Amino acid sequence: MTWTTIFWDDSEGGNVDHIAEHGLRVEDVEQVLENFDRIDRSKSSGSIIVFGWLGSLRIAVVVDEIDDETIVPVTAYEV
Q1: pTM
Q2: Which CATH number is 31's domain given?
């Protein structure tokens, strides 16, 4: 999977706020998305999950795919 655009919603309650609730920043998630090591699908929701490293932390980013080039991070958290 390759994408060229990551959609960020910085309005109240948007995905920027949601990842911040898990102690992560936009830059953290972008780093994981640019250097991921595995992509999987959630068995419960079917959402795409991108796994990668942020320093020594293993991070999972749940994304919605809008089209072949654009993704929307829904949430991100340490696993």
Answers
A1: 0.89
A2: 3.10.450
Each residue of 59-78: pLDDT tens digit? 999 998 878 789 999 999 99
DSSP string of the chain, one letter each residue: ---SEE----STTSHHHHHHTTT--HHHHHHHHHS--EEEE-TTT--EEEEEEETTEEEEEEEEESSSSEEEEEEEEE-
Give dist(CA 79, CA 44) in Å, integer: 17
pLDDT in tens, 19-55: 999 999 999 999 999 999 999 999 998 999 999 999 9
How far apart CA 13 and CA 36 sit, in angstroms, is 26
Q: Are 73 and 15 in contact (CB under 8 A)?
A: yes
Q: Which domain holds residue 74?
A: 5-78
